[in-house]
Amino acid sequence: MNTHSIEGIMEVSLLAGKLMLQSGAETYRVEDTITRLATNYGAETAQVFVTPTAIILSLRERGELRDYTKIARISNRATDLHVVTLVNDLSRKVAQESLPLVDALKELHTIEKEPVAFPAWMQIIAAVFVSGCFTLMFKGNYHDFIPSMVAGGVGYSIFVSVKRYISVRFFSELMAAFFIGLIAKLAVDYGVGNQLDKIIIGAVMPLVPGVLITNAVRDLMAGHLVSGLSLGAEAMLTAFAIGTGIAFVIVTL
Amino acid sequence: MIEAIWTSFLASAGFGILFNVPRKALIPGGICGMIGWVIYEQMAGASQFDLVLATALASFIVATISHVYARLQRMPVIIFSVSGIIPLVPGGGAYDTMRKLVENDYNAAIQLGSQTFLMSGAIAFGLVLAGTIVPLLLRTQRQTKSH
């Protein structure tokens, strides 16, 4: 194993971890990848602490007694599993083919600039079908299928566009939920749809933080108590924002 | 049954797009979600089955299939399991809880809320169980092969 400078190892493993965490990888996977990269590049020990908002990494060079520590702050998170796969492939390549450190760093920088796997219009179409299908899955009838598709599509487009321009957290979910409720209510009032609840449940599904809740519980079970609790708090606030948006329509109109 | 199959497939694959999974993982993710939902629905339909138990079992099976796909396509498990568990996620329960809260029906809200929480716990339990058992099985298989 050839030796690399500790700064280089630090840079590569921290950047890889940051990319994964920003794209919605699980806490244990991020810790695993960072430790693996660091030890493969010749660090003697790697202590890493991952929370949803920051990564702390401490590395020790071979034959030294001093530790080098660095923090990466994670400010915004999204779900982009394409990036997780790319970083995972890279880490595998490092382990199997001993990819040079410079090349790994270069590759990580290209991954960083990679556009999202699916453009916004495709995601909106996906949200349309997801909404319609969930309405049917929750025992809605075909009368509710179309209103739910419309509400879900409009809701998701509002979610995406509000998120782009306003950085207040949870505001985009609230606005989207409000319009979903409004469309569902109008549809039922004008006789296009039948059951208000089924339409709303289906249309709201693309926004619901279900995976966040599950990941939170899973982190807690795996002993990542800090990440588990903070992900749980985020999930609760998101659900609360959606609930508030819908409630506003139901109570006022 | 047929309706359950195509709706859950489309919903799971659609969620794959929302989560930006790699393109070749879309259909496997849809299949995972479809199998999970059909199992859940069949068990929830049989009245002696508890919803939480049905969720745990379905999520265990989804996670097992995801592990196999992950091994075959050399991708992280989360890519497949995330779209696979989506139909099981108690979004409807979460919505009903919020609705009851808003209507000042706190007793019903607490009841529904606890069930929702238990169901998401059950999904996590199924995922963790499969995450510990399946790699063990796959490892022993490889060891016997190499001997």
Can you give a write-up of this model?
The complex is a heterodimer of chains A (about 250) and B (about 150). Chain A is mainly alpha-helical. Chain A has two domains: about 5-115, no CATH class; about 120-250, no CATH class. In chain A, about 70% of the residues lie in helices and about 10% in strands. Chain A is built from ten helices and three strands; from the N terminus they run H-H-E-E-E-H-H-H-H-H-H-H-H. In chain A, helix 2 (about 25-40) runs parallel beside helix 3, helix 5 (about 120-135) packs antiparallel against helix 8 (about 195-205) and helix 9 (about 210-220) packs antiparallel against helix 10 (about 225-250). Chain B has one domain. The termini of chain B are far apart. At the A-B interface, helix 3, helix 5, helix 8, helix 9 and helix 10 of A face helix 1, helix 4, helix 5 and helix 6 of B. Chain A: It comes from Fictibacillus macauensis ZFHKF-1. Chain A: It holds the Pfam family ThrE. Chain A: It is found in: Cell membrane.
List keywords for this structure.
heterodimer; A: 253 residues; mainly alpha; 2 domains; three-stranded antiparallel β-sheet; 10 helices; B: 147 residues; 6 helices; 83% helix; globular; transmembrane transporter activity (chain A); cell membrane (chain A); ThrE-like_N (chain A)
Briefly summarize what is shown:
By secondary structure, chain A is mostly helical. Chain A has helices at 6-22, 27-40, 81-97, 101-113, 120-137, 142-165, 171-189, 196-204, 210-221, 225-252; strands at residues 45-51, 54-60, 67-73.
Total of DSSP H or I helical runs spanning 4+ residues of chain B: 6
Number of domains of chain B: 1
- Give the topology string of chain A: H per helix, E per strand: HHEEEHHHHHHHH
**What is the beta-strand fraction of chain A?**
5-15%
The total count of helices of chain A amounts to 10
Which protein chains make the most extensive interface, counting residues with beta carbons within 8 Å of the other chain's beta carbons? A-B, 52 and 45 residues
Distance between the termini of chain A: 69 Å
Percent strand of chain B equals under 5%
Residue-averaged pLDDT of chain A, rounded?
88
Mean pLDDT of chain B: 87
Membrane topology (chain B): Multi-pass membrane protein
GO cellular component, one term (chain B): plasma membrane
Subcellular location (chain B): Cell membrane
Keywords (chain B): Cell inner membrane, Cell membrane, Membrane, Transmembrane, Transmembrane helix
